[in-house]
Amino acid sequence: MVYEIDLSVYNDDKWHPYVADDVQFEAIMLDPYIRATLNRTQVSNSASDFATYRGDIKLPDRYGTFTFRVNYKRTGYSNVDVQDTVAIWPPRHDGYPRFLTAAYPYYTGSLVMVLGFLALCAVWLWNAEPASESKKTQKTRDDEKKKPKPKSK
Fold this sequence. Notes:
Elements: E1 2-11, E2 14-17, E3 24-28, E4 32-37, E5 39-40, E6 51-56, E7 64-72, E8 80-88, H1 104-126, H2 131-146
Antiparallel strand pairs: 1-2, 1-6, 3-4, 3-7, 5-6, 7-8
């Protein structure tokens, strides 16, 4: 996230850019999550009446309502107290691509697993013993049952 603020000072009946190196930014939910110093950006137009301070801030992975605040107090100057309330929410389900290119190996792996399972089921279901062998094994079992058992003495 990028936060910018413009500051100027009134001196000699004219507005001038305010130059400082201690302008701080705070991102507050209930407690300050982030406190960072803003850096002055270089202005190509030197006749500008204000100085722009900028900060590149990475917000925490936390959803809710943040208050962005610059509370700058210096002796001899008016206080600067700027507050902006911003709601941070997760992206909608259609706010990102459906299929990620980095996940193609996983998609391929799961597809191969499903196809392998279906092939195994097909082989198991439609695999039948040859008719001639099944009759032979049935006959030998029946013959063993019909044989008389030897008498023990």
